[in-house]
Amino acid sequence: MTARRLLGKVNPAGWLVVAALIGLWQLAVDTGVLDYEYLPSATEVAGAFGDLLSSGVLADDVRHTLLVTLGSSAIACVVGVVLGFAVALLPIFDRLFTASFDLLRTIPVIALMPVAMLIWGPAAHTEVIVATYGATWPILVNTAGGVRTVHPRLHEVARMFRFSRRRTLRWIVLPAALPDIVVGARLAVVTALVITIIAEMLVNAAGLGWGLVMAQQALQPAQMWAYAIAAGILGYLLNLVLIQAARRSLPGSAAFAEAA
């Protein structure tokens, strides 16, 4: 997946709207229409962003947040897919654990962060644990839903060709459920990013979340906005990559055929 192909999907009209909003922000601050003590102008935010980049602090914070996000979402995808298949295909597993899963996924992850910090301490692995916990539910629910909605005729095809259970799962069920699994994986990565940034604010003093908190406590609104924008850019780029990965992995798409 090349950068040119990624950038080719960008909507120029959408970026013009973004540029217009930034211009309005700058104009409103300069003319005093928005007169708040801790609301910097767009140029001040850009200057703070450049300072953070040149010092290397922002790169280190982005690296930490990105590694935790990718690590926790990868673990969540593996766990969620396995549990989703178990819920959809094993009736006894469904009866025993589905009610517990429904209860656990309704608990806000942010409410569990103080508990996690008391148990595992203010460390990076605590971030990974809480982010994995929150990111597991989207992939689990989507996987279970995708496996349950596989058309019965596909199972008839498997029986006609006398596929074993393992071959049926590999060649029939998994490809049919793949679109739902991919959607769940996209949601898991975005969820992991959000939880990671919150965990950095509350649990572990590192990454973009902690940088944003430190800028707020130091009364440096330009740096605070710079960190917030950096988090938004990271989320946008992750979503862009995931969209392209989804298009290339879904059966029937041109990109999937080309990759195959």
Description:
By secondary structure, the chain is mainly α. It has one domain (45-251): Orthogonal Bundle (MetI-like fold), CATH 1.10.3720. It is 83% helix and 0% strand. It has twelve helices and no strands. The protein has helices at residues 3-7, 12-30, 42-55, 57-89, 91-104, 109-120, 124-148, 152-160, 165-202, 207-217, 221-249, 254-259. Helix 4 runs antiparallel to helix 5, helix 4 crosses helix 10 and helix 10 packs antiparallel against helix 11. The protein is elongated. Mean pLDDT is 85; it is low at 253-257.
Descriptive keywords:
12 helices; 260 residues; mainly alpha
Summarize the structure.
The protein has 12 helices and no strands. It is about 85% helix and about 0% strand.
**Helix and strand element order:** HHHHHHHHHHHH
Roughly how many Å apart are the termini? 14 Å
Outline the low-pLDDT stretches: 253-257
In terms of DSSP E residues, the strand content is: under 5%
CATH class: Mainly Alpha
- CATH topology, by name, is MetI-like fold
Mean pLDDT comes to: 85
Number of strands: 0
Provide the gyration radius in Å.
22 Å
Shape: elongated
Count of alpha and pi helical runs = 12
Under CATH, the homologous superfamily reads: MetI-like
- The CATH architecture category equals Orthogonal Bundle
How many domains, in number, for the residues? 1
Structural class: mainly alpha
Q: Main β-sheet, in a few words?
A: none
What share of residues is helical? over 70%
